[in-house]
Q: What sequence folds into this?
């Protein structure tokens, strides 16, 4: 067994840029942290961020929110998903996705994934027909974009709308179109482990003015909806402002100030993440016991984490690999665990809706490992990490 140990931290992010710190301090000194607490004709950090993110994303409208989870909930409510409505979504995702469906009274209909961790379009087509669901909450889980052209063809044929969860694909593209620009709306996260860091935070984007007017009132705009940086014209609020409840899910000026200087760095950071991903992937694919998901040519990824399977291992072998890598400083998450752990859980532990049979997903997740690649790592770090994984896979192979 290897004696080499990785000494870095898988949870240590890069520091917030100095100009973001200065902007945050300026907001704190002003005392005007609430997004609508503005002086005279002041635009405000949150409204400025909404305009800048909409322009970067290529979306007509953008609403800044308190978290990525709130962006999903507000998006579903604005799409008028309600009690008893069936909503299609990935069987492989994180708990906030089915949690948001349940929070608005919807019933999740889980769709199988394929061996490359993407939504199985045949199963989607079948379950859309069987369930009659009118909405797909598409989770681009761990940054894996499915065939978006094929998916939108299924949506058109079956008559359901698409809301994209882009928490893991901010800046990723399919056929040069950014994720989030395929469906009626997209949801993004700026939680610490995502691609911009404000601790918590999120965005909701859309080209639909009536949808965004509903979302804006739902977010808790009161009657200040004209103070948004990338919102629809006031005429779209004429009826909506009386009909939508206030859910107080606004982003504050402090978080917006922290995020604005990070946005111009995002494309550069995407290239850095992809270099780290490619370093690890190039080593792992050398081992015949390891299966690394295929990245299609149509996809421009954001490789801020990497996944791989060791299909020959049983549960005990997967647990042993996780433990042994951990002893050498490499923190792996295993999606086959029956018990939820940290941020990781599976559909069997989401007991707030009826259990569903997902044999293909269960088989894939039973040997699936996941690992963060923070930008505090170097390519040399990633080479050492990959070597430690390879050596420990060799010790637990059946």
A:
């Amino acid at each position: 067994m290897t004696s080499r140990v990785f000494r870095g931290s898988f949870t240590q992010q890069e520091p917030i840029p100095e100009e973001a710190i200065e902007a945050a301090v300026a907001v704190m000194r002003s005392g005007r942290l609430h997004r609508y607490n503005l002086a005279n004709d002041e635009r405000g950090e949150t409204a400025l961020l909404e305009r800048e993110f909409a322009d970067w994303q290529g979306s007509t409208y953008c609403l800044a929110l308190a978290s990525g989870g709130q962006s999903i909930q507000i998006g579903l409510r604005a799409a008028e998903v309600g009690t008893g409505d069936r909503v299609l979504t990935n069987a492989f995702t994180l708990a906030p996705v089915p949690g948001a469906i349940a929070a608005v009274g919807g019933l999740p209909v889980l769709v199988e994934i394929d061996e490359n961790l993407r939504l199985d379009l045949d199963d989607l087509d079948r379950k859309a027909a069987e369930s009659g669901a009118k909405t797909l909450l598409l989770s681009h889980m761990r940054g894996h974009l499915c065939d978006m052209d094929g998916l939108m063809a299924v949506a058109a044929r079956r008559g359901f709308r698409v809301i994209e969860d882009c928490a893991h694909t901010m800046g990723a593209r399919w056929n040069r179109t950014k994720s989030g620009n395929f469906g009626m709306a997209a949801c993004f996260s700026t939680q610490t482990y995502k691609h911009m860091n404000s601790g918590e935070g999120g965005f909701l984007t859309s080209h639909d003015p009536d949808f965004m007017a509903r979302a804006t009132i739902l977010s808790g705009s009161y009657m200040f909806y004209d103070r948004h940086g990338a919102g629809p014209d006031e005429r779209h609020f004429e009826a909506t402002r009386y009909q939508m409840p206030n859910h107080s899910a606004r982003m504050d000026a402090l978080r917006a100030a922290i995020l604005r200087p990070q946005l111009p760095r995002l494309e550069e950071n995407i290239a850095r993440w992809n270099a780290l991903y490619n370093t690890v992937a190039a080593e792992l694919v050398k081992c015949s016991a390891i299966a690394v998901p295929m990245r299609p040519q149509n996809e421009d990824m954001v490789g801020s984490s990497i996944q791989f399977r060791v299909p020959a291992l049983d549960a005990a072998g997967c647990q042993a690999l996780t433990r042994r890598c951990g002893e050498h400083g490499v923190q792996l998450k295993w999606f086959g665990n029956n018990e939820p752990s940290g941020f990781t859980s599976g559909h069997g532990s989401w007991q707030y809706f009826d259990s569903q049979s997902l044999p293909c997903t269960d088989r894939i997740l039973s040997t699936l490992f996941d690992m963060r690649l923070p930008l505090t790592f170097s390519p040399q770090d990633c080479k050492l990490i990959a070597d430690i994984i390879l050596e420990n896979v060799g010790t637990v192979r059946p």
